[in-house]
Predict the structure.
Amino acid sequence: MPNISNRGMEMPESPIRRLAPYAEVAKKKGRTVYHLNIGQPDIATPEIALNEVKNNDLKVIAYGHSAGNESYRRKLADYYKKYNINVEYSDILITTGGSEAICFGFLSCLNPGDEIILPEPFYANYIGFAVSSGVKIKPITSKIDDGFALPPISEFEKLVTPKTKAILINNPNNPTGYLYSRDELNALRDIVKKHNLYLFADEVYKEFCYDGMEYISAMHLEGIEDNVVMMDSISKRYSACGMRIGALISKNKEIIKAALKFGQARLCPPAYGQMAGEAAIDTPDSYFEEVLNEYVKRRNLVVETLNKIEGVSCPMPHGAFYAAARFPIADADHFCQWLLEEFEYENQTVMLSPMSGFYSTKGLGTDEIRIGYVLNVDDLSNALKCIEEALKVYPGRKTK
Amino acid sequence: MPNISNRGMEMPESPIRRLAPYAEVAKKKGRTVYHLNIGQPDIATPEIALNEVKNNDLKVIAYGHSAGNESYRRKLADYYKKYNINVEYSDILITTGGSEAICFGFLSCLNPGDEIILPEPFYANYIGFAVSSGVKIKPITSKIDDGFALPPISEFEKLVTPKTKAILINNPNNPTGYLYSRDELNALRDIVKKHNLYLFADEVYKEFCYDGMEYISAMHLEGIEDNVVMMDSISKRYSACGMRIGALISKNKEIIKAALKFGQARLCPPAYGQMAGEAAIDTPDSYFEEVLNEYVKRRNLVVETLNKIEGVSCPMPHGAFYAAARFPIADADHFCQWLLEEFEYENQTVMLSPMSGFYSTKGLGTDEIRIGYVLNVDDLSNALKCIEEALKVYPGRKTK
C-alpha cells in the first residue's frame, strides 16, 4: 500500500469534532447533551432565503459563473455599502463557504514555505488551510488576562522575516469574541504597510457586534487597499452554515484574477446556496435586531453566570457568539471528555470546546474553554448549571 | 503591492472559459450561438431530486457531517452495487463536486513535487488541481489516429521515477469519449501493482457507456484495492452540475481518514445538494434509458456528419458525451475564436473547445476540437451545418 502524504499526516483532526463520539456515548445513555461546542446556531435561517430555494422552478441545475452569479455579486456589493465597505461587484468572488475564501486567499497570495502571522487563539481550521497550502503559521499569543486584546505590534515586528507575507485576523474573533478597536486596526495597518504584507481579514461575524461598539473592517483602512483580502460567509449571518456560501473580497485586481483561476478549476459555487444567499440580502432589519437582542441576552447570561462560579473567569466578549473562559482545571481536553463520558447532572451534560486546539503554541489554552452561546436561554441555563455542578466534582480540578 | 503567489501565476485560465467573452460579442450582434463547448447538458435534472429540495421544510440549514450525510453515503454505497462496486458507506466521502474529490485525493496521497502520470488529452482542470497541490503532471499522449486508446504500458514504464506516486485516468474520458477496455485496465493494474502507485480513477461519466460496451471500474481491479481512489460526481449523471456534489471512494481506510481531515477543515458539503443527491438515487431507470438513447442519437449525428466533411476525422466515442475531432486547420484556438468573432451562417454560429488546453505537452492538439453533444438534435444539426460552412470559408484552413 502506498504511503499517505506528509500533509495528510500533518493535517490536524478538527478539535471541535474530536469529542463527537463521546457525545454519542452520552446520548446512548439517555442523557441530554447541550451542544455549546460548535458555531451552529439554533437561530432560524431567514424565511426569505429558504423560500427562494423552495419556490425555484429551474429544470436544470446548471453550472454558474466561476466567480459566482453576477446578480448576487452586485447585490452583495450593495450590502457591503451598509458597512461602509465600498466595493464593486468585480471585487467579489463568491466561494463555497468562507473556508474556500481562505483557501483561495492563501493559494493566490502565498507560496509554499511563506509565513503568516496570526494572533492565537484562532479559528482552528486555519491550521488545516495552512497545511493544504504549505504555508507556515507564526502565532502571537493574545492573553485571556488582557481580554484577548491584540498583542503589542512590537511582538509582530519580532516575528517578521523575509518569508513573512501576511497577517491574518479574525474580527470579531472566534474563539474569543474579541472585537478589534480602531487603534488596534490602525497599528495593523501600519505594520502591513511598512513590510508590504497582505492583511487577510476573516470578518464572517461582522454582523455580530454588541454594546454599540463600532465595527471596523480591514476594508476601511486607508493606504493598504491593495494589501487587504476580506473573507466573508453567509453561514453565521443568516444561520445558514450548510449552504456553503462565502466570498473573497479585494480591491486588488491581481488577487481577484488569480483567485478566479482557482475558482475556474472547481467550476462554480453551489447554485441553491447562491440562490438563497442572494435572496437573504433582503432579510428585514428586524431579523437582525431580534437575533442580536437574543445573542446579547445569551452572552450576558453566560458571562455573568460563569464569573460567579468559583475559580472561573470569563472576559466580556463584544462580538461573534463565543465566550472564552478560564476554568480551574489543568487539562480542558480531559475535562470536556469527562463531561461526556462520566458526568451527568439530572441526566444532562454539556459539550464544550477545549481551547488547546485553537492555539498553535503547544501547551497553551489547557485551562481554557470556548462556549458557543448558540442555544436558547433556558437550555443555556441548564447547561451552565451542569458546568457549575461538574466543577464541584471534577477530579482534575486545579488546587490553588 | 505584494506579489501574487507563483502558483497564482502558474494557474492556467480555463481553456473552456477563455472564449466566453467572444461568445458574448457574437450574441450582442444578435447571433444565435450553439454552445458545444461545455459539459453542461440541456437534459433535465430528475424531478425527484428537484422536488426533494423544493419540498424540504428545514428551518435551519445547518452544518452536516464532514464526510457527508450518513444516510446519503449508505444509499450511495447501495447505488454502486449496481455497478458491481462493493463498498461500505465508510469507504465514501461526499465532496463539494468531483473537483473537491480530486483535490482531496491529491492532497491526501501526494506530496508537493510528487509526479503523477496521466494520458493526454485529459480534463483540463487537472492542471489546476496539480498546481494547487504542487504535484507534477507527466503526460503520455494518446493519439487520435488510435482512437485515443491507452498508449502502450511500456510508455508509462519509461516515465516512472522515484517521484512517481500515481496514475490518473478518466474513464469514460473527457475530452475524447474513450472508454477503456478490460485489457487496458488490466495493464494499468499491473503497473500500479509493480511500482506500488496510486490509481486515481475519475469515473464521473460511468453512466454514459454506449453500444453495449462494458464499463469497467478501477474499483473492479483485483489485487490493487488499497491503491485505487475513485472520484465521482452527480453533475453529469443527473445533469446537476450546479449542485456541486461529488464523492471520493476508496477501500483504503488510511486515504479516507486523511481525506476526512481535509473535509473537516472545510466543514461539510452543501446541504441542499446532498438532499437532492440522495433523492436522485431513486431516479427511475427509464430516465437513464431515455437520456442514453438521446445521447446515442446525438453522438451518431455528430460523428457521422463530421466525418462527411472534407478533411475532418472523428473517431467514434463509446462513452461520456464528447467527441474529439481533427479539423483541417492549423490553429484550433484561432478557429474557435474566429467562429465567434467573424463567422456567421444564417445569423448563427457555434462555440467549440479547442483541444490544446487538454494537452499538457505544448504544441499538441492544435488541429483538434472537442464537441460536447449537449444540445438537442435540431440545434446540433444547425451547429454542425455552421461548422461545415465555416470550414469552407475559414482563412486559416490547412492546405494539403
About this structure: The first helix of chain A runs from residue 6 to 10. Chain A has two domains: 6-44+286-393, 58-280. The two ends of chain A are 52 Å apart (CA to CA).
